[in-house]
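Re: the multi-chain job from yesterday

Posting the exact lines I submitted so nobody has to dig through the queue logs.
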Amino acid sequence: MCRWMAWFGEPVLLEELLFKTQHGLVDQSLHSRMGAETTNGDGIGLGWYGGGDGPGIYRSVSPAWSDANLRELAAHVESPLFLSHVRAAIGSPVQETNCHPFRHGRWLFVHNGFVDGFAKIRRDLMVELSAELFAGVQGSTDTEVIFHLALSEGLEDDPIGAMETVLGRIEDVAEAHGIANAVQGSFGISDGDHLWAIRYSTEGKSRSLFASADAVAVKKLHPENERLQRVHDNDRVIVSEPFSDLEGLWVEIPESTAVTVHRGGAMEQAPFTPVHAPAAVA
Amino acid sequence: MCRWMAWFGEPVLLEELLFKTQHGLVDQSLHSRMGAETTNGDGIGLGWYGGGDGPGIYRSVSPAWSDANLRELAAHVESPLFLSHVRAAIGSPVQETNCHPFRHGRWLFVHNGFVDGFAKIRRDLMVELSAELFAGVQGSTDTEVIFHLALSEGLEDDPIGAMETVLGRIEDVAEAHGIANAVQGSFGISDGDHLWAIRYSTEGKSRSLFASADAVAVKKLHPENERLQRVHDNDRVIVSEPFSDLEGLWVEIPESTAVTVHRGGAMEQAPFTPVHAPAAVA
Amino acid sequence: MCRWMAWFGEPVLLEELLFKTQHGLVDQSLHSRMGAETTNGDGIGLGWYGGGDGPGIYRSVSPAWSDANLRELAAHVESPLFLSHVRAAIGSPVQETNCHPFRHGRWLFVHNGFVDGFAKIRRDLMVELSAELFAGVQGSTDTEVIFHLALSEGLEDDPIGAMETVLGRIEDVAEAHGIANAVQGSFGISDGDHLWAIRYSTEGKSRSLFASADAVAVKKLHPENERLQRVHDNDRVIVSEPFSDLEGLWVEIPESTAVTVHRGGAMEQAPFTPVHAPAAVA
Amino acid sequence: MCRWMAWFGEPVLLEELLFKTQHGLVDQSLHSRMGAETTNGDGIGLGWYGGGDGPGIYRSVSPAWSDANLRELAAHVESPLFLSHVRAAIGSPVQETNCHPFRHGRWLFVHNGFVDGFAKIRRDLMVELSAELFAGVQGSTDTEVIFHLALSEGLEDDPIGAMETVLGRIEDVAEAHGIANAVQGSFGISDGDHLWAIRYSTEGKSRSLFASADAVAVKKLHPENERLQRVHDNDRVIVSEPFSDLEGLWVEIPESTAVTVHRGGAMEQAPFTPVHAPAAVA
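And the result, structure tokens for all chains:
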């Protein structure tokens, strides 16, 4: 499984979050504390909104901690909204097309977790894609298939709704194959104007997910922390694992919950409930 | 498109064929003469039968000419039967899982050519695979799909028959999508006991394919060539493009033809005729 | 040998020059016309001034034509001053630390050409470096040694003068080893405020080097060319090989010449004359 | 720092030691127990004696645990004598030319440890190399410089003696630069006929080094262990960290000690004492 983070706020050099933060994502790639694996060395990915048309993507099979190009990019590119991901492969090959984020038009998609028994149901899931979306699946991860299924189901109009439909279907298909706890994970999604995050697992024991707390309150709590004092009130960070141990900085997103972050930092929270097909219920 | 070669004969160090032969495969990767592209720099692959269980595979995204590990492997591994491939990508990503040969159990598969309009029909072709074979497709090339379809259709019992079924079906599916000349290429197949090669294109203007001529005759023709004099009478080489300009060394395999090379060098030739579904004919 | 280009003018998306220009650098990596090699597939490098502190660097061992990250970076990063280089290795390994540009503080350095007999004189050249500059040589190319020697000799104060000193010394050392025509090439140098280019070879038959002509005149010549009409009057491009065949667009920089491009596009030209040690003259 | 292992005995498939052994080298690359770093994910190297002329080398910047080619090679290549190394870079770039083993003719060289303050003394050390050996240093590690210095000092005639001279000199040069504990590590060396290993550090607190015990005794101790029962009496393994927890299997090589393993498994042990220049002593 993996780690990911997302930033939505004032434009910052990517390195502020990726390299300079205590226990930041790149540091986590070597030594994670709360995750199931202790090393996330099977590739790095970065998607950012900024110059040019649509989001840019950087994906590499190098471990994040040794990738010289990632360090350069992070030190010289600014963005108001970006997602980054470090990977610990479980089964599928270490290759750029298996690195997150995945992209479609203006959309980016990251995932920490897995679809249990994916090899058994990959065919039955992909069959539901149109020829065009089917051809767009370039790698072999479960995540890329989830993303394309969600695109099929209207992700671009209603990302949370589309994910409820898709994760419900995956659970149905898995159950038909005798797989009990099909979905596990946290998801990050953006179109450049909003940032969505989902914490969900069939079993109800999901990977962790945190949002940064209200910046004003946190600054008061830690007047000595220079880096924190530079954070704007509207900046928001979502992480699969907290970056540091600062008290009050992180708010855990509850089980089976989706959050929407708006430009300006406002964040809404709603229950996330997969939609099951009637047939599967009967 | 690509270049490939296969060796079946006495065990040789791979470098004899890959690096030391005039106008050999690695040299061809930089400057091909008869192919459609002038550079095949999008990866290299090698599959060999020898030590261990089943064939070994080496695949790399480096251009063949600069891959230090390929050079090492070729200088230190001997094999009586191997296939090698240099790639010029046309659309699909440069990644190891898109490098030939593809492998399933004891079987190896290489291809020079393409399926026209593959993005449009990838879904309709892959849907015909079982869940298990579907999950075995790790990359995004047309070739890997052809190989898995052929496995579905009995490649392990009758490789040429399975390929006639599969290429026929691809032509049918393509035609239904308005694609006129779907299949182009030469194919190399082995299970470690035989070597098969197919030259075929829907259009009837196939990529080139050559077999080495009877060694006895060739040696007489070129008594001055030391390397040739070392070739055993039973050795056989199949190449998508001739290695050198030696007169009499290469026999062109005709259009729409399949050849079977047996251990000991005997080679049979037969017409290759794709099988079309009755519905598609009607 | 290699190809390189430099841009100094209004900020542009890198892809305008790297990918969208007819016969641009990436296209040249596959098929060069005037160079000694037909393929420059042994790595790509890019150095740009823009966001962050000092120039950013992207270096990859993938051929430029298939490097997905280069394409992304070029489509999403803007810069008023950048250098890019495609490599055809001659002897030294294909690795990121052998890709140009080389960097030291704010300085970038690229080279198309070679030091003849470099293996024989590498030691004698590097011995002249301070311990600190010696430790800064991370790869194994002749170019990186030339750059560090020039840093030793005051490149940061007088780049052209330092290069005259260094190339003279290399010729002296080479001659002492019986190497007649030691230096070959064109060089590109920048500190973010100026752009320098040198065309020089011991033999007097240097690799080509071109500067873009006065934009106003060129636009008049080709009123139909949309891309040209967008070029600002102050933009300047230096290339080892012309990008396109547009008449009047390129001005060849003469043999043994150094040019200095100032912000605003003004370009000076001066003779380039290596300085030889008295001992070597005697 | 790193981990390494060496095998000298009956020919085995490399995977027996690299992948199939409990807590073997590849497993160690992810989770080491006794080393200073918890992850060795900065490249893998393998040098083996077998087919072809001299040792073959495989080096890759991928982490060992995810390198598909390493797994293939290990499953299909047999060797009676090989060394393998997993790297945790400390400062120098992750690139193939920085992966161990290093090779010169028939000689292979691996190292777990470091030269403290290497950047400060790299120049003074390398200056002592001949032009030819200087040019042979392709990467930027301390280890490659140690190896080439040892070649300068007669490694091919007396490997332990040459290493005593070289490590003594490094200590002298370092001391002159105010570096107190210059050398740390264990070294593995082979010419295909013998295997040497050294455990030494200036400080006298060296990285661990173990040899496999007499096979006969170990088999009696663990009659239930099938893999152990297959080991021949003459097989010998040297490791920087024990592979498993089997009681009695591993003999720790003491501080400041060099061992020589002869064909047939006989192993001699001798004190290792760096030789210091008189000047440095004065």
